[in-house]
Write a structure and sequence with these properties.
Blueprint (H helix, E strand, L loop, with lengths): L1 E7 L7 H8 L5 E4 L8 E5 L2 E5 L12 E4 L4 E2 L1 H13 L7 E4 L3 E2 L2 H13 L11 H9 L12 H21 L7 H15 L3 E2 L1 H10 L3 E9 L19 H8 L8 E7 L2 E3 L11 H8 L18 E3 L3 H11 L3 E5 L9 E10 L2 E3 L5 H4 L3 E8 L16 H14 L3 E5 L7 E3 L1
Parallel strand pairs: 1-10, 1-11, 2-5, 2-10, 5-7, 6-8, 7-9, 11-14, 14-18
Antiparallel strand pairs: 3-4, 12-13, 15-16, 15-17, 18-19
Helix pairs in contact: 3-4, 5-6
Length: about 425
């Protein structure tokens, strides 16, 4: 038995795609366990450069099953587009499977999300991909699931039942409404193109575990975007924490062997919300890049310039506590190569007093970061493949992370490509 869960330790965009792509070489199955196409995992390997929004990163390894899990909300149009792109570059997608219990993200979810964000009244900086509205329909039992694509008669009854409510909400927000016929035609198309990939998920996962297959569950976004534990309301609409992999897949947590937390060597965020160590734009230019490189700091889904800041180990320690990390992967340490001094946040003060907990989003706006300044290494780390050959000050930074989080750093990313990594 070997179940590994990989999750983000910050606000998302930590470099999870690179680490999943690297670890998938050892896996028999890679599972995306939550989220939708509102964010992306960037992968650079022998097949090319890719930004995957729905398809698990294990799709590139021959013989490795890629599974879009129950906890996801999936826009079938985007999934089909992603499949077409991969296949056009020679990637075999025959081993992609979809949980029949995953939620179908509909065109009207996107319309509602866009209207809410554009109104400015309830906007929180979403990507306008309909994610929150799809999860809302799941909670109020109005959503369709992929299992419904296999039963047209039942599916049409469900569409007829939910469309009056959907159209009333669309009309109230000034959006175009949808006819039952439009949505039915869409679902017919999706059933034809994706029906052969839909499987019963609980037996699919548990039989694989019982066979001793090596399974990697990959999360989207990061701990600070968790709907329950993150910077609410500036969060995603699902739980990108390790425990949710077991909840959504339907296997006991006792079968989890490893939990890998992925952090970026600095901090980034997209969308609104508190960000204690955020830099001004001029200071962060060395991290961001121009957008010409695959690993420059622009959103994989939106292309928006990310908000950037100094590394915040309070956040990473919080992520380690709520996830139970057995190891940490630090990505993009090469982006610190040109900094003479590096400020690392090791604590917060609230109202002038040190605190030992993660405050609410409201109070997180008010905290004062406590920094420890360390010397940079001022040398190129991109060609290094062993920990011992890292500059001394780079090793000191890694040791500082371990000291404040209590978790060993096992993987160190020194570039975007598959093999630009140090494994300890």
């Amino acid at each position: 038995m070997s179940v590994t869960i990989l999750v983000g330790a910050q606000f998302g965009d930590e470099g999870k795609g690179k680490i999943v792509d690297y670890l998938s070489d050892q896996m028999d199955m890679v599972v995306r366990f939550q989220g939708g196409d509102n964010a992306g995992h960037t992968v650079v390997n022998d097949s090319g450069s890719f930004k995957l929004h729905l398809i698990p990163c294990g799709i590139f390894k021959k013989g490795c099953k890629a599974f879009a899990g129950t906890g996801m909300v999936i826009n079938p149009d985007e999934l089909i587009k992603e499949l077409d792109e991969l296949e056009s570059k020679g990637v075999d997608t025959s081993e992609l499977y979809i949980s029949e219990r995953a939620i179908i993200l509909m065109p009207y979810h996107i319309a509602l999300d866009s209207a809410s964000e554009s109104s400015g009244r309830t906007g929180i900086g979403t990507t306008k991909r309909g994610i929150g509205y799809a999860y809302a329909d799941k909670a109020r039992r109005n959503a369709l699931r992929f299992e419904n694509l296999k039963d047209r008669e039942y599916r049409l009854k469900r569409i007829e039942a939910v469309m009056p409510t959907v159209n009333a909400e669309l009309a109230a927000k000034g959006c175009k409404t949808f006819s039952v016929e439009e949505i039915a035609a869409k679902t017919d198309e999706w059933a034809k193109k994706l029906g052969g990939r839909i499987v019963e998920p609980v037996s699919f996962i548990n039989k694989a575990i019982d066979r001793g297959e090596r399974i990697l569950f990959e999360g989207q976004l990061g701990a600070m975007k968790d709907i329950d534990l993150g910077i609410y309301p500036y969060v995603t609409s699902s739980n990108p924490v390790a425990a949710y992999a077991a909840v959504s897949a339907g296997f006991p947590v006792t079968k989890i062997d490893e939990i890998v937390g992925v952090m970026k060597a600095f901090t980034s965020a997209v969308g609104d919300g508190p960000f204690p160590t955020e830099m001004n734009d001029e200071m962060s230019d060395g991290f961001r890049g121009t957008g010409n490189r695959i690993d420059d700091e622009f959103g994989a889904r939106t292309g928006r310039a990310r908000r950037l800041g100094w590394p915040d180990l309070v956040i990473v320690k919080f992520a380690a506590v709520i996830n139970g990390f057995t190891s940490i992967a630090v990505c993009k340490i090469d982006k610190l190569d040109t900094y003479e001094k590096i400020k690392v946040c090791v604590g917060y003060k609230l109202n002038g007093k040190p605190i030992d907990y993660m405050p609410s989003a409201t109070d997180l706006y008010k905290v004062e970061p406590v920094y420890e300044e360390i010397d940079g290494w001022m040398s190129d780390t991109t060609g290094i493949r062993s920990y011992e050959k890292l500059p001394e000050n780079a090793r000191k930074y890694i040791e500082l992370i371990e000291k404040h989080t209590g978790v060993r750093v096992k993987y160190i990313g020194v570039g975007p490509a598959h093999d630009e990594i140090i494994v300890r």
